[in-house]
Amino acid sequence: MAGAAAEERRLATVVASWQQRPVLVVGDAMLDEWRFAESERLCREAPAPVLTLRRRISAAGGAANTAVNVAALGGRAALVAPVGADVAGDELHDCLDRAAVWDRTVSQPGRPTPVKRRMLAGNQILLREDSGGPEDGLDADGVARLLTALHCATEELRAVAAGQPLTLVVCDYGLGALPSAVRAWLVANRDRYGTVALDAHDLADWRGLNPTVVTPSFAEATRLLARAAAGFAHAERGAVPSGDVHLNHRAETDGPSELMVGAAPGGSGERVPGSPHPASGTPAAEALAGPTGEPVPGEERVALTGDGLSVTGTGVTVNAAAGAGVDRAVLAESRLPELRAHTGADVVAVTLDTEGAVVGGAEGEPRRSHSTPVPASHAVGAGDAYLAAMTLALAADAGLPTAAQLAQLAATITVADTGTCVCRRQDLLAALGTGADEGGHPALVGADELAALVGEHRRAGRSVVFTNGCFDVLHPGHVRYLTQARALGDLLIVAVNSDGSVRRLKGPDRPVNPVEDRIALLAALACVDHVVVFEEDSPARLIEAVRPDVYVKGGDYPPEMVPEAPLVRRLGGQVRTLGYVPDRSTSAIIDRIRAHPVGEGRPA
Which keywords describe this protein according to UniProt (predicted)? Predict the structure, then answer.
């Protein structure tokens, strides 16, 4: 139990560390519309139920829902996407405003906002009507304004990033929001972003972006392998490769044809027996450019064949050492290195809907995560929550196993009910079971939510004690100091300098411990109620937000020498200084460690 609690706190420190991370989301934004109906009789005109509409809700979808999830998880999200000048566009703007997403969408008169309308009876989706798609392309003026919005939003986020690298999330669902000029701009400006996440129906369109992470579904991953086997260069020229790879589009079917994907990236495969060689310029040859649009449900099924594993719907057969019990997760894990090579990504996370995900990077063993099977109406947008949490965790320098664990957890806890999935930061922390006080408040809080939290405490009649510091190497002097500070009021808030702030104050070789470790230890102390990280060199902004009843600093000097004393007194608080335990300073501990390198014995 103690180990599990420690692990939950470790994960919670990552959630705290991504607070207000600047994230630019670009791609296909849409409106999700949910219509809940009841049926008590059949129609006279046809054997169909008569539906009585009882409730209608709308939500951000696609790239817009990814931005909503980033904001709900605690990041600072800005969305750049084309949106129609129509009623659906107005509703989408309202959804973004309610979620505190920076709405930097570009109005496109004459181009409808993509909408997915679902009609439900109970939890069962009866039908879905889609409007707006790739046929409604952007004109030259629309592309130019979208590129301007991308540049401006990037600079706007940079201005408030406090030195943090920006993060980019690309959501390409084949609806026309990311034409070639926009893709080229993003590839050319890749170095303006630290972490780049890509979620695309056709990953081959993004070669050259070199994303940090890609999150294809199983169908999207097999599509990429199919295009790789056919040869990207030939496909882009519209020519048929000279090898044995052939696509057979029979006139009597409307589905993709069969293609054998060899084990080697870009290698030739085996022609399907009886399939003719398509002539250049024919629909079959043009199909080598790869399928577009949203994958159909059949593309997610796998059947075991004599030669390997056949992906039903795509017609892709992957040569693999197949045997009884082989499933999609096993297949995805076996192809992770190829997927990384074809996408240029550091991390590939193949999502398997109700079966979880398989995640792998350059180092370490692939990680398999699991999810709880739920009705399809509960899982809409769960992939957006997964993408948002994975991106934020990697942007906060979390390890891949940690990022994968948080991403799967975020996706899993959003599927409790019908509707478009959004994972909120407080729900993620609650699922981790981490530090909450008697009022149900989390121990690790963000700077922007601190004032509201303190207001709740004050309405409950509690007095607030505030202190700040680097707390680089936590030692008994800190513990005694914080315990004494807590005794001066009803709750203690500890503000911790970020890593960048510590470097500016203490020098380039500090901090010894990253902020995630420092706040985890502080939050574990019984005397500490809330921990918050600040980027500035001075806690003045937080002091103004908290207006503490007592401000505490460590040291043997009088309170008048505390730099923050005038501000605290102007706000109505008092200043106290508390002495440290002798010979228990961080610098003294670091000096002793450096004086005795590894391998040398300690003095008697």
Answer: ATP-binding, Carbohydrate metabolism, Kinase, Multifunctional enzyme, Nucleotide-binding, Nucleotidyltransferase, Transferase
Q: How far apart are CA 281 and CA 241, in angstroms?
A: 13
The CA–CA distances, whole Å, from 57 to 377, 384, 406, 470 equal: 14, 19, 28, 47
- pLDDT tens-digit map of 271-293: 233 333 333 333 333 333 333 44
Half-sphere exposure of 304 (CA within 13 A, CB side): 8
Alpha-carbon distance 75 to 88, whole Å? 26
What 154-159 contacts at long range (C-beta under 8 Å, 24+ apart), as own/partner pairs, is 154/24, 154/189, 154/192, 154/193, 156/78, 156/102, 156/104, 157/22, 157/23, 157/24, 157/76, 157/78, 158/22
The bridge status of strand 357-361 relative to strand 347-351 is antiparallel
Region class of 308: left (phi > 0), else alpha (psi between -120 and 50), else beta: left
Contact 82, 106 (CB under 8 A): yes
Q: What is the DSSP string of 196-208?
A: EEEEES-GGGGTT
Residues 432-482 pLDDT 10s? 875 444 344 567 788 777 888 888 888 878 889 999 999 988 888 888 889
- DSSP conformational letter for 552: E
Can you read off the two tokens belonging to residue 77? 């999200």
Burial of 159 (0-12, 13-18, 19+ CB in 10 A): exposed
Flag whether the pTM goes above 0.85: no
Q: Provide the annotated active-site residues.
A: 384
Domains (ranges, CATH) in the chain? Answer: 20-223+328-431 (3.40.1190.20), 443-593 (3.40.50.620)
Which residue's structure tokens are 């309308």? 117
3-state secondary structure at position 240: coil
Beta bridge partners, 318, equal 261, 309
Between 315 and 153, residue with greater pLDDT = 153
Instruction: Report DSSP letters for 75-123, one per residue.
Output: -EEEEE-EEESSHHHHHHHHHHHHTT-EE--EEETTSPPPEEEEEEETT
Nearest 5 degrees, angle CA 594-CA 596-CA 597? 75
Structure tokens at 416: 């409790």
